[in-house]
Amino acid sequence: MKSFLEQNISHDSLLTLFSQAPVAMALLIGDDFCIHNANPQMLELWGRDISIIGKPLFEVLPEIISQGFLDIFKSVYHGGEIFKGNKRSVFLEKYGKYEEHFFNFIYAPVYNDDKKIIGISIVATEVTDQIVSERRWKDSEYRFEDLIKNSDYSIAIYQTEDLYIELANEKMLKTWGKNAAVIGMKLDDALPELEGQPFIAILKDIFKTGKTYSAKEDKVDLVVDGKLQTFYYNFSYKPLKNQNGEVYAILNMAADVTDLVLAKKEIQEREEKFRDLADSMPQFVWTCDNEGEITYMNESWYKYTGSTANDNQTKLVKQMMKPATAEIADEVWKNCVKTKTPFVMEFEFEDPENKGTYRWFLGRAVPNFSENGDIKQWTGTFTDIDEFKQLETQKDNFLGIASHELKTPLTSLKLYTQYIKTNLEKAGDPKNANVAGRMDYQIDLLTGLINELLDVTKIQKGQIQLNESYFDFDKLVDEVVEEQQMTSRHKLFVSRTNKIGEVFADRHRISQVMTNLISNAIKYSPEADEVHISTGLNGNDAQFNVRDFGIGIPEDQHAKVFDQYYRISASRDYTFPGLGLGLYISSEIIKRTGGEIFVSSVEGEGSDFCFRIPKIKN
Ligand code: ADP
């Protein structure tokens, strides 16, 4: 019996249906699978034209033999089983290009009236585009997952307003102090310690507002390693929206900045501590940049000046300084900036309580360097030394008066002693005359000490007078050496590289310097027998050297020996008398003469003191 289709539908109509169907169809006949029919869609799908009709399929598409299709066709043809292919990959050579395509298809056996299989019908649709986009999507999904997994940030995604943890990377789990078991849980169940903290409410609110929330260095308390601990995070909650613009999830990204915040806090605390310390000091403590702009002043300064942090302190410091010293201070400061060396200077600031009067201050500043050797800032102090200065003046005045007062009776004492000595010699009492002679020597020593004190007071008051005239330098050397030799057991040797001749200077003061250097050489070489004196011309200068073989001077003290009252307590075996003034006076005399004085010395081996003065006044 014929089917309804065969009875009612014309053959032409069936062919039209076949050729116009939106799917690819073909009919293969015989066991060599000859293409009996193939609609245009099928021809397009294979990439072939109508000329293939009547030819065996595997002759037309040889590339599919090795892809297992021959076996499939054979099993459909001989076994009668329908074969369905789902998203099956097929490599086809279409229009000269060998490419992968994807198809859904059905191979069904075709029977004749005797129920014998005479061929195979093929119905196929190409799904290549769908598969490619699926693959791309999958790829991007994998990439996204990979990105999240390997991210330097802690990342989590919360689904729905109940905030189910859909995803949390390793870093986020570590941040929370949890493991992967929390994935799928509600955030507030996974982290119950968030109760009382604002985060859950903020997250839920984002489902309503649709707005991203971000925070910097925010404090979060989390239970990590079984303890509630405080951490600091930079984080953001970003809403993920569907096509309708509705929030369906929140992407949480966070960076742990706990170490940074704690370090910042520590620096802040330290800074506060230092400020407290600086504010509690009676000295004025300050910082400034390399241009000299004050960046900090402590409380004591504000109290002293009655100014506030809003006033321009750089200007104020300059205003407060005594005009005469301000310029010098500026010069010294500029030089320190240039040479990157500490600033030290004494100057006067106006006394705000007694306008027009000034107080002495000691200004000090040290440069703070950055790693590349540039100056970051200067840290300085101004110390009130006014009382100290007054005491120093009192002391100098006292020394001046005392030495002056002592000198007069001492002069008489010397005269009387000499008188007694002469009388005793005349009376034939040499023993007592000798005692009187020793008294006379001691009076000379005392006079020498008092003269040193007088000289120092004169130097300080700027009263030292140089009576300059031409004199024979070589002759003066001989005189001084001869006089020193009379009272010394050391042999004094004099050598001259050349004759110096006439020099324009204060003969008396230069002889004082020579005497001081030679007597020191003798005094500080108790175990030696010789002192070498040498003179000569050095360019236009007269040079005088005294070399001894005594205790020497440690290198770090070389420059200090010319300071007032400076004495080195070096030798354990000897004590040396003296006030520590001789070299100070000598260096002042030489400086005022326009010359230089210096020392080279090795501790334990001896010293070489030398001065040079211009032969003629410049
Ligand atoms: P003083 O009266 O103490 O000798 P000076 O001003 O002449 O004072 O010398 C200062 C210090 O320098 C001395 O106390 C001594 O320590 C050191 N000094 C001076 N000359 C010599 C020297 N030739 N050898 C070693 N040390 C010396």
From TrEMBL:
Q: Which InterPro entries does UniProt cross-reference here?
A: BphY/WalK/GraS-like, HATPase_C_sf, HATPase_dom, His_kinase_dom, HisK_dim/P_dom, HisK_dim/P_sf, PAS, PAS-assoc_C
Q: Please list the residue ranges annotated as the Histidine kinase domain.
A: 401-617
What GO molecular functions are on record for this protein? ATP binding; phosphorelay response regulator activity; phosphorelay sensor kinase activity; protein kinase activator activity
Domain of life (superkingdom): Bacteria
| First-level EC class | transferase
| Keywords (A to Z) from UniProt | ATP-binding, Kinase, Membrane, Nucleotide-binding, Phosphoprotein, Transferase, Transmembrane, Transmembrane helix, Two-component regulatory system
Give Gene Ontology CC terms. Answer: membrane
What CDD domains does the record tag this protein with?
Answer: HATPase, HisKA, PAS
- What Pfam families does this protein's entry cite? HATPase_c (PF02518), HisKA (PF00512), PAS_3 (PF08447), PAS_4 (PF08448)
Report the coiled-coil segments: none
The protein's name: histidine kinase
A GO biological process of this protein is: regulation of DNA-templated transcription
Q: What is its EC number?
A: 2.7.13.3
Domain PAS, first and last residues per copy: 270-340
The record's subcellular location field reads: Membrane
PANTHER family attached to this UniProt entry: SENSOR HISTIDINE KINASE GLRK, TWO-COMPONENT HISTIDINE KINASE
- Where does this protein chiefly localize? membrane
Q: How is this protein positioned relative to the membrane?
A: Multi-pass membrane protein
- Reactions catalysed: ATP + protein L-histidine = ADP + protein N-phospho-L-histidine
Q: Which residues form the PAC domain?
A: 214-269, 343-397
